Amino acid sequence: MSENNKEKKVTKKDILKVCWRYILTFQWSWNYERMQALGFAWSILPVLEKISDTKEELIANVKRHLQFFNVFPPAGGAIIGAAAAMEAEKETPGEAVDSLKVGLMGPFSGIGDTLYAVLTRPILGVLAASLAMAGNIFGFWIMVLFGIAWGIVIKYYLFWLGYRQGNNVIDQAADEEGEGLLDKITAAATVFGITVIGGFIPDILSGLTTPLTFEREIEVEGEMVSEVVEIQNVLDDILPYMIPIALVAICYYLIQKRDWSAVSVLILLFILGFAGSYLGLL
Amino acid sequence: MEDAQTLGFGIALILAIWAYLGIVLQLAPGVAWHEPIIAGTVTGLIIGNVEAGLYVGGALMLMSLGMHTYGGASMPDFQTGAIVGTAFTALPEVGPEAALTLAVPISILMIQLDVLARTINVVFIHGADKFVEKGQFKKMTLMHLLGQVPWGLSRAIPVFIAISLGQGPVQAFIDWSPEWLEQGMQTVGTILPVLGFALLLSMLPVKKYWPFLLIGYALLAYMEIPIIGIAIIAAAITPIYMRMKAGGANV
Lengths: 282, 251
What we know:
Strand content of chain B: under 5%
Order of helices and strands of chain B: HHHHHHHHHHHHHH
Helix content of chain B: over 70%
Oligomer: heterodimer
Radius of gyration of chain A: 27 Å
Largest interface: A-B, 105 and 106 residues
Number of helices of chain A: 11
Shape of chain B: flat
Largest sheet of chain A: 2 strands, antiparallel
Radius of gyration of chain B: 22 Å
Largest sheet of chain B: none
Structural class of chain B: mainly alpha
Strand order of the largest sheet of chain A: 1-2
Number of strands of chain B: 0
Number of strands of chain A: 2
Distance between the termini of chain A: 72 Å
C-alpha cells in the first residue's frame, strides 16, 4: 500500500547479495513441484525489492520468479546473473526475463551436465578413487578441490559473466544456425567425453567376467585327453569385454527405447548380479 | 575386542550431523560434498580410521561413475552408504570389504528417502506462495532456508539409527552372512557402474557421435592404452574434429 517515491537504484551490493544467495543456498528448497523456483526467487529478491515501486508490484515480480525452474546449478549462474542484470533495468518487461530463463535452462543444463558428468567427474573420480583405495589422502583432496571449483569458483565466474552480458547471453548462447558458442563447447566436450567413455566402459567394468568352464575331449597324439575350456577366454577372442558391453547396451536400450527409469534398471542389475553370482554365471 | 566397539551414542550423533551437512552442502554450494570419498574419509576421521573411509569411499565412487542426478532424478545414495559402511569398520572383524557389502544395499535402499525429501519439500514452496501473496517476504526467506531440513534429516536420521541401534544386528549379520550373500553383493558392486554408463550414454547424442565411442573402445580393448592416454588422444581428436567441422564447406 505504501507508495515509495524515492528513486532507488540497484547497487553493486544488491547484485553481490544475489550472487552469494545463489552460490550458498540455491538448491536448499529443491522440490518435485517447481524444483529450483524458490531458490531462484529468493536469490533475485534483493534486486526485485529495489526496482518495485509498490508492494503490489513487488509481489507480482516475485510471483513471476516462483515459476518452475531447473538447471544444472553451476551453469545456471549465467542465467541468474543475466536475469539480475535485466531486472535491474527497470524498463525491461518481465516477460523478457521469464522467456530468457525458460529458453536457457535447457541448453545450459545440457552443457553443464556434459562438462560435469561426462567430462570432469568420471575422469577425476577414477583418479581420486584409485588413490583413495590405495590409502592415499590425495584422493580425498582431489574431490574437495573439485567441489570448490564447480560449487564456488565456476558459479561465481559464470554469474558475473551472465551479469555483464545481460540480454546478450541469448545471442552468445545459441544463434539460429545452431553455431553459437555454447553449441561449439558442447560439441567439443561431447566428442572428448564420448571417446574417453568408450575406453572407460570396458576399463571400469573389466571385473565383469564369467567363471564358467566346460570340459571337452580332444585328441592329442592319438590319445583322447580332456581339456578344460574357460568360456571367458572364448568370449575375449570374439570380442574383448563382451559381457560389460552387452550389459551397458541392454540397459541403454531399456532407458532410451523402453523408457525404463534409472531405479528400474538398478533393480534389474541388482537381481542380475545376485542371480548371476549365485548360479555361478558371473 | 571390546576396544574396537567405539561407536557410542556420541559418534552416532556426530555422524548424523556430518550426513546432514554433507547433503545440504551438496545442494548448495555443491557439487561434490555428497561424494562417497568425501563422506567416507571424514567419517573415517571421526571414528579414527581414515584408511577405511578412503577405501570404502573410493570403492563406492567407482560404482557411481556416470551416475548424475539429471534433472533431479534419484540415484543410489552413496553418501549415506559410505558413512554407515565406514562407521561399521569399527566393529570387531568387520573389514573394509565386509563394510562394502553393507554399504551397497544401504545406498540403494536410501533412494526411498531421497524421494521422500524431494516430495516433502513441496510444502515449502506452497508456504512461500502463501507468504508472497501476503507480502511477507521474511517468511518467504524462511521457507527457502528451511528447505534444507527435510533434505538433511533424510540422511541424518537413517545414519543415526543405523549407527546407534545397528551395531548388534550388523555384527550378527556379518557373523552370519553366508558366502553366497557376500559374493552376490560383490558382484552387485561390480555390475552397478553399468547403470551409470547406460544413463550417461542415454544423455548423450550417441547416434551422432558413435564413431568416437568405438575409437575409445578400440584404444583400450585392442591397443591397451590406459585411460589417461585415451584422454590425451581424445584431447587431440577433439580440435581436429572441430576444425574439420568448421571448415567443412571449404574441403
